[in-house]
Amino acid sequence: MNETKTKKLNGAEVTLECLKREGVEIIFGYPGGSAIPLFDALYDSNMKVVLSRHEQGATHMADGYARQTGKVGVALVTSGPGATNTFTGIYTALMDSIPIVVLTAQTTTPNLGKDAFQECDTSGMTFAAVKHSYLVKKSNDLPRVLKEAFHVARTGRPGPVLIDLPKDVLAGVCTASFSDEMDLPGYKIPTYADTSAVEQTAELLKTSKKPLLLVGHGAMISNASRQVKELAEKLNAPVTSTLLGLGVFPADHELSLGMLGMHGTVYANKAVLDCDLIFSIGSRFDDRITGKLDEFCKNAKIIHLDIDPAEQGKVLQPDVFLCGDVKLVLEQLLPMVTRLDSSDWVKTVQTWKKRYPLTYPKQGGLRMQHVIHTLCELTKGKAILNVDVGQHQMWAAQFFRANYPRQLHNSGGAGTMGFGFPSSIGASFGNTTGWPVCCIAGDGGFQMTLSELATAAIHKLPIKIFVLDNKYLGMVRQWQDMFYDKRYSSVDLVGNPDFVKLAEAYGIPGLRLKRSADAERIIQKALDYNDGPILIHCECEKEDNVFPMIPAGAPITSMITETPKTKLEKPTGST
Amino acid sequence: MNPIQERAHSISLMVANRPGVLVRISLVFSRRGYNIDSLVVSPTLDPNFSRMNIVARGNPTILEQIIKQLEKLVDVVQAKDHTNMNVVEKELALIKVKCSPEQRTEMLQLCDHFKAVTVDMTETSMIIQITGNTDKIDAMKSLSQKFEIIEYIRTGKVIMLRGEDKT
User: Fold this and answer.
1) Which of A238, A518, B92, B120 falls between 20 and 30 A from B78, CA-CA?
2) How confident is the model over B6-15, as pLDDT tens digits?
3) What CATH class does B87-160 carry?
């Protein structure tokens, strides 16, 4: 669709036009000197711009929007510190394969490399955290670069793409026509898997009496819920899920085992130990789920389906590797499979589900588990949760029963504290479900990005902000409790503000929740509120630990289900 | 360190000829703390692409992973490990030695044996140019140590597949 332009546009206007052509409806950003040409072009445009209060917030918002919608999220910031502040957001998106495009303005091209004001080698700094990046030196390159950036961000294994835009490139005239031309000779997008690998998979499945499906984020990205369900039911195979895969397969399905791994369910982890075949569907065998590698699925055949060929053998050597898009490959496979001789296995697994349910103590003060459980009950599971990182995150994964894809948003790979709240803003902008968007944050993570309260307030976003406050960095405290002789080092968050008053200062109403008995009433009140954001300050039990737990680097057999009486060996695995 | 585990691998890449490509490639090695022994970048017949030849040492399974991650880079068209393959491998080295007129005959005999040539000669020194595979250059260097080596530089390995097919 080559077309000639009548009016001469500058680089900034062309950039904006390219964004529109890519279907972008909203930009999360923060201006600054070098970025003024772009913000000037936005002034007359009908593009929605959300002014964050920090560039990290803008990047997480773009990320949350992308997770919610499946579209590419866009962040726009200035050079120097504006760009460096996006780094955590870019890295978070990379670790979870989230399609975002980050536009960073830059000093003028003649100033590059001269330590000019707010110059930063942005592309150099971010090489290790992007799927791909560009430093645009000529205004006429803009249409092609923008086209490529969105294509790379959203296809294959999605990821963040950064475009560094010098101010003179933005201000200069661009005479290049908008075209669909791309120059990506090294970029390949896997689709269907090799037929022979699919046939091998079908053969291997036939031999299994104790199959286990492991569903990861890849299945969500590929929108393959229906195919995963069909496969599980057709085979009669139990399904476990990674943190980011939760919701692809309904939690309430009788074959669902919930999350596996470090804080996964007992029955999922027992199934991992006992299965004779594990079929990973869009998971990358992260160390959070495998524990000690030599012991993981030691006696099971391994089938690994992933769109990224570099995942083959990265962690485990599979018996069959299927390289391709989850949905397409499962469609290849489904006609070849039949019901397995697995009824005894399914019965065993269901016995475990009954015998080792997820529980939490009902006595004592308010529990985070109770808040999340109540939220799940009151919304009948029809809510979007943007969760921060820590104990509350694991409890959200355990006690919010996700039956739908794209309803639980977590910073999984990166474990970025401060992610939950800004990402809930992005999700809220992208939310078309009619369900409430809830931010579930701890007192630690919330304080890292709480300046976005202003952003939520001015846009009157209907976000339910749950601050689960135990006045501790709870997960680190739990490790210090269990493995470091209760030497609580730098985890006491004394000095926390009164979060209700804090919200009120931003014009956001706040509710206080202190007693378990009030949980239902107060959470319902928050859900009923319909005039913008509302904050629920939940003052929780200070020293509660997340169980089950497999210490990092330990085999699954070392699973702990309650606080041990004696000190445990320090974990050998990372974090 | 097991010498078999850590043997040198010859990796060849076809990459888009763009700024930043080299950084992206070297990061795949450096994030693991892997060192690149030698690196040659040169244009190809098509100016849009460059050819890179990398020699690196490390655990073979990790290097296999590294090659997959190189292949995954948007600017990398192809990445291959040519170790144990039927390829022509050549390096060029320049060796500057102290060499008096009395020592010249011996030095020239050595050059003759290795099919090396002298590219510079003074009353007191000589620069020898040698091409060949890594072992041959190592041997020449080792024997030149009898004379005092002032300095020494080598290009790194260039690789080409034998026969009609492209590397």
Assistant:
1) B92
2) 789 999 999 9
3) alpha beta
